Amino acid sequence: MEDFCKQYPDAQASLRFWYDVVNANSFFTIQEVIQMFNSADYVGNERIVFNIARNKCRLVAKFRFHPRAQRVYIRFIGTHTEYDKIMDIATI
User: Fold this and answer.
1) pLDDT tens digits in sequence order for the chain, 92 residues long
2) What does the alpha-carbon distance between residue 39 and residue 81 come to, in Å, rounded to a whole number?
3) What is the pTM assigned to this prediction?
4) What is the extent of the structural domain holding 18?
5) CA 83 to CA 4: how far, in whole Å?
6) 13, 19, 77, 78: which is deepest, by most CB within 10 A?
7) What does DSSP assign to residue 21?
8) Angle at CA 28, nearest 5°, toward 40 and 2?
9) Which pLDDT belongs to residue 8?
10) Cβ partners under 8 Å of residue 58, min gap 6
11) DSSP string, 27-82
């Protein structure tokens, strides 16, 4: 994430906000995540796509929900153009 922010500094505040919200909350379902980030989309296989920096960039995260702890794996961060080139978003 840091490398991406160095390359695209205008995305830094949005990425920091996303990170802080995910860290501060315990989500137990995909619906809870979507409720918090109303512009996010569930794309299957535990993956959610988030709009970053007013939709200039996209972040794909895989969420694993557990009763005691959630795990979030960032699978992709890139520009909207780079995101559009992904053939099967549910497998990255």
Assistant:
1) 778 888 888 899 999 999 999 999 989 899 999 999 999 999 999 999 999 998 899 999 999 988 777 899 999 999 989 999 998 888 88
2) 18
3) 0.91
4) 2-91
5) 14
6) 77
7) H
8) 55
9) 85
10) 49, 50, 51, 52, 76, 77, 78, 79, 80, 82, 83
11) --SHHHHHHHSTT-EEEETTEEEEEETTTTEEEEEEEE--SS--EEEEEEEEEHHH
Task: Return the half-sphere exposure (C-beta side, CA atoms, 13 A cut-off) of residue 67.
Answer: 0
Instruction: State both tokens at 4.
Output: 């991406």
AA letter at 75: R
Per-residue model confidence (pLDDT) at position 66: 81
**Cα–Cα distance measured from residue 61 to residue 40, given in angstroms and rounded to the nearest whole number:** 11
**Tokens 């007013």 found at:** 54
